[in-house]
Predict the 3D structure of the following.
Amino acid sequence: MRTAFIQQLYNLAKVDSRINLIVGDLGFGVVTDFARDFPNQFLNAGVAEQNMTGVAAGMALSGKIVFTYSIANFPTLRCLEQIRNDVCYHKADVKIVSVGGGLAYGALGATHHATEDLAILRALPNLLVIAPGDPLEAQAATRAIAAHPGPCYLRLGRSGEATVHDPGFDFQLGKAIQVREGFDLTIVSTGSMLQNALEAAEQLGQKGIQARVLSMHTIKPLDTEALFKAATETSALVTLEEHSLVGGLGGAVAEALMDAGKGAVRLKRIGLPPEFISTVGSQLHLWGLNGLSVEGITKTIELSLRAE
Amino acid sequence: MTNENRNLGQLAVRIRRHVIEMTRLGKSSHVGSSFSIVELLSVLYSGVLNVRPDQPDWEQRDRLVLSKGHACAALYAVLAEKGFFPTDWLHTYYQDDSPLAGHATHSVPGVEVSTGSLGHGASLATGMALAGKRDTAAWRVFALLSDGECDEGATWEAALLAAHHGLDNMVIIVDYNKIQALGYTSEVLSLDSLAGKWRAFGWAVREIDGHNFAEIETALGAVPFEKGQPSCIVAHTIKGKGVSFMEDQLLWHYRSPQGEEYEAACRELDGER
């Protein structure tokens, strides 16, 4: 996803000199070409995320389209008030990009786990929140947020995510993508869980349970149309995210259903426990321990359906 | 006193009278913080800043970031005096449904950015200056900071970046009134030597009396002090300047002028006219 993002941004910067990229002294080997070929559109702000974000807002208020880039919680939580006041309040054309959403930096430890970002940033006014599900979504989302005037948060995985979509697929901000049809239940997935969602759906399919899979790449604004359609056409909803169970996709879906008087719909939220994960391990290992492996997801859904 | 200085003096008195009136009607605070920047604002808006009151968003305007957003009463007053919006608005300050909130707000004509949380303005100004440089624009950026917000780490992050990139199209003015929210800066968190700190961060620095029109005009007329370096003016000021019983008093960070105190303040200010 990281590569898909930077290649797309490189192409955009080539044709639009308003596009600027500011990094917080991270992106070794990733931002090299961009920095070399567009020195007047690149800035390394140093290890100073608050200033990076304030500077981005100041540049955006002077006519630039500014991407800030760092990893995990550094471009988000470290400078949260700059995002709130300087970027969101002014509707500044700043796109906040974080690489390593969820447990992508697993073994680096809990300081590097971005597991509350969706909940926290979703609460900010004027900010779009996007977590692409595969490299093609990451590429399309980069194009879309560059064209969207105003603040956006793009939460990327890291590298090596499977490509789920076909080239030329239809991507629109705020529009969920159905990647599998089914009428027994719907798995609503965001971010890097998409491949696991599909594989879990296949396993359920072998047991005679047909799951619809939605890639909910935009968490805010949430595609309530696709959600309500799924709530009507299938008998249960399962949200799936590499994020704390507090306030992320599952929370957003629950809020939308309750507010629309659809609280009777069966909803199971699958995500991370709202705790620091102190076990050392790779992303894959930590998924397994926290119920986010394909097997874990399949089992949780089966148990949940059986409880009906 | 030259005619020019007499005009500046009259403008400063009018700003202070507005601030007293605004904070009395709004029952609001921050009079002292507003009073310490009145001379600075008077000079900035009397020929230094290239702005158009009838076209506040004019692209080629000089930018002023009031980073110490709590002193917005003085900014609103000078903007109204210069015709950015009707002076009538001032009397609604801080009151229900007023266009004028208790911290600088970008919806107000002539107010560049919303501030109020300290330590944001230096970064915003740096971003603007960097964008200006990249576009080889002629406009400049001025930011007015409080001394208290030099406690904020983000201020110094911006100081590093602006100096590293040689942003000589930006000027930071620090309103060094030496009082912050809970006491003297020397007691809360010493800033000495404030000018030395900015110098050490790579800025070209001058220290002036922030209430002396001639010194302010000379300094602002001489920026950039060094080509290829951002400029910093450490303006030594007095919190509450202009009303004897408010000067150098922490209380007037908080107190709203009412009753006899309001009357006394007006008498003092009117006597100067």
In short: The two ends of chain A are 38 Å apart (CA to CA). Residues 141 and 254 of chain A are 25 Å apart (CA to CA).
